[in-house]
Design goal:
Blueprint: H1 2-41, E1 47-48, E2 58-59, E3 62-63, E4 81-87, H2 89-92, H3 102-109, E5 113-117, H4 125-134, E6 143-147, H5 150-159, E7 172-173, E8 186-187, H6 190-195, H7 197-203, E9 208-209, H8 231-251, E10 255-260, H9 281-298, E11 302-305, H10 306-310, H11 325-344
Parallel strand pairs: 4-5, 4-6, 6-10, 10-11
Antiparallel strand pairs: 1-7, 2-3, 8-9
């Protein structure tokens, strides 16, 4: 009886061991296949980056449609006018309640108007140029609301140029490492996520949920900035980029509205603030906002001066530049007035 029991234990252990070995081999093969495919893209990839929200995303109170526009919004075929909101995460309003996001507030205030929001975290004015030229023009917009400052400031402080090879903020896709949209997320099941993620990715892609990525997204280095940055030259680069964007929009008979970026640097800490020793970010942010005002004045473009309207009001921000619900609702009132004025001219 004991010998029979031992035989059964051996047989079960051997079978389990073989299953584990087979699964491990398949996991290694799937991982090899996945990374070989990604690496194989490197020599063939040369494309403009449309840095926009994930398409068909639904999670954490944030939704987009199959085109990447932030939901909800009124269907374009049901309205007369189309207004597009473009910018970074301040425009995106990811952590604002759906009905309190700027595009929804403006849409409710205006009559017969669809408001599309394609704001995306990290976007600067050159990303907006890419998206406007290669996507938004196809929707025949009447007005485009532009909100740019801090992302232009950060990329120029850290790289000195818009034409960089940053993994998530470059203007061109030249490597599979830049394919953020193809990083499809983590498996939903914790066991699969921990032990067989590549089997799930290659053989069972439906077990993945969007929003995460298998590869850590690298932002900027942790070391200090150069101590000899020419702020005046960075200011000129930003001015050229934003002015070119406004000119391009005007040339297509679309009416731009510029916004300065409201902020609350006085009340909130900034991530990796030690990197910016010697540079007053609040002051530099104000300098870039002044560039926006200058362009608005020189080019006769309607301006929503969020910086002066919001005046470091802590209740309007949950960190240095991102709106709370009350901040979004507040500034939307002024955007609505600007849009009405532009549409009536």
């Amino acid at each position: 009886m004991r010998k029979k029991l031992l035989n059964w234990i051996f047989l079960i252990s051997f079978s389990l061991g073989m299953i584990i070995i087979i699964v491990a081999v398949v996991e290694l093969y799937c991982g090899f296949s996945y990374f070989k495919y990604r690496d194989g893209l490197k020599n063939r990839l040369n494309a403009i980056r449309l840095k926009e929200p994930f398409h068909s995303y639904d999670g954490d109170g944030f939704r987009t449609d199959s085109l990447g526009f932030i939901l909800p919004y009124q269907r374009l075929d049901s309205t007369k006018n189309t207004v597009v909101f473009m910018g970074g995460s301040t425009t995106e309003c990811r952590f604002v309640q759906e009905e309190n996001r700027v595009h929804r507030c403006v849409e409710r205030d205006l009559k017969n108007t669809s408001c599309l929001n394609i704001g995306n975290s990290g976007n600067n004015s050159m990303h907006t140029m890419n998206i406007f030229a290669n996507k938004i023009l196809g929707y025949d917009p009447d007005v485009v609301v532009l909100n740019h400052n801090v992302n232009d400031l950060s990329i120029l402080l850290n790289t000195g140029t818009y034409h960089n090879n940053h993994i998530s903020r470059s203007l061109l896709l030249t490597s599979s490492e830049n394919l953020f949209s193809y990083k499809v997320g983590y498996p939903k099941n914790w066991f699969v996520r921990k032990y067989i993620p590549h089997i799930s990715l290659v053989l069972l892609p439906t077990t993945f949920e969007g929003g995460g990525n298998l590869i850590d997204e690298r932002e900027f280095p942790k070391g200090p900035l150069r101590d000899d940055l020419d702020i005046d030259s960075l200011k000129i680069i930003f001015k050229r980029s934003l002015k070119s964007l406004v000119t391009y929009i005007n040339n297509w008979d679309v009416k731009p509205i510029l916004m300065t970026q409201g902020s609350c640097f006085k009340h909130f800490d900034i991530k990796n603030i030690d990197r910016y020793d010697g540079y007053n970010l609040d002051s530099l942010h104000n300098v870039f906002n002044e560039v926006v005002r200058d362009i608005s004045h020189d080019m006769n473009v309607e301006l929503v001066d969020a910086e002066r309207l919001m005046e470091d009001n802590k209740s309007f921000f949950y960190d240095s530049v991102h709106y709370t619900d009350s901040g979004s609702v507040f500034i939307s009132n002024y955007i609505s007035k600007a849009v009405k004025k532009v549409l009536s001219n």
